Amino acid sequence: MARTQSAPRRGVERTQDAVHNLRLKLLVFAGLCLLPLVGAVQMAWSGQSWLPLALYPAVSLVSLMLYWQDKHQARTGAWRTPEKVLHASELCGGWPGALLAQQLFRHKTRKVAYQVTFWGIVAVHQVFWVDHLLLGGRWLGGVLGAV
């Protein structure tokens, strides 16, 4: 008797994996972006600086494009984008775009050392905004001023 079902195609599997836990991923993403968004809006509204409000989306787009390029280069066997370049873009405020790119392109999600550094960068941004919004920058200002 012949088999009537064929094996699932690779592209179909990737699509299903990409949407797995979509609501949870979107909720986590929104939660992580909340502090920087509120902090950047507050900075711009109070006249301190509009730079974070402009930089987060711009550098996030750059990060997303860097991830896309690196994924494309990985598939074609071309010269890869160094991880330090990806991390530098995340540190400059592009971590939201990098997080989106990791999920969209399924890129750099399994490399533990990379993920540890990435989440450390996200934590640095979160700590900065908590300090800025809740403590008026006194804690980090004191720590950095002592160095």
Write a structural description.
This protein has 147 residues and is mainly alpha-helical. Mean pLDDT is 87; it is low at 11-17. It has one domain. The protein has helices spanning 10-19, 22-45, 51-76, 83-105, 112-135, 138-146. α4 crosses α5. It contains six helices and no strands.
Indicate the percent of residues in helices: over 70%
Let me know the average pLDDT: 87
Spatial gap, N to C terminus: 76 Å
Query: What would you call the quaternary organization?
Result: single chain
Quick summary of this structure?
The chain has 147 residues and is mainly α.
Topology:
Layout: H1 10-19, H2 22-45, H3 51-76, H4 83-105, H5 112-135, H6 138-146
Please describe the structure with a list of short key phrases separated by commas or semicolons.
147 residues; mainly alpha; 79% helix
